[in-house]
Amino acid sequence: MASGKGNKPLKEGESNLSNAAHLGSFLDAIRAGRQPSADILIGHQAATLAHLANIVGRVGRSVRFDPKTERCPDDADAYALTRRTYREGHWTVPKGV
After folding, report:
1. From CA 6, how far away is CA 33, in angstroms rounded?
2. How far is 72 from 66, CA to CA, in rounded Å?
């Protein structure tokens, strides 16, 4: 269930999207069959930096990150924080995990 201000559940039909222009641009790109102005790779790279900062904070030291493989080689503690641990048999477990 999606939530809005104050972490209160949204009512049916409500949205917590604060940037209608961004959403409109995305939908226009889908309709036109073109790349959106906010490319997913840029979003992925930005999110990766934030995740790495959280990993560094949790392990309490600097880490080496290989951007090609998106792994922390030879660092089991840091690498463990790049993946989610799923409960056995849970329906959200991706195939191959």
Report:
1. 37
2. 6
Reference 73, options 82, 81, 64, 61; nearest CA is 64
Q: Which of 71, 43, 44, 42 is CA-nearest to residue 55? A: 71
Tell me the pLDDT of the chain (97 aa) as tens digits.
566 677 777 777 777 666 677 788 889 999 999 988 878 888 899 999 999 999 999 999 999 999 999 889 999 999 899 888 888 888 777 777 6
- For residue 4 the two structure tokens come to 């809005």
pTM of the model: 0.60
In this structure, the number of other CB atoms found within 10 A of the CB of residue 50 comes to 9
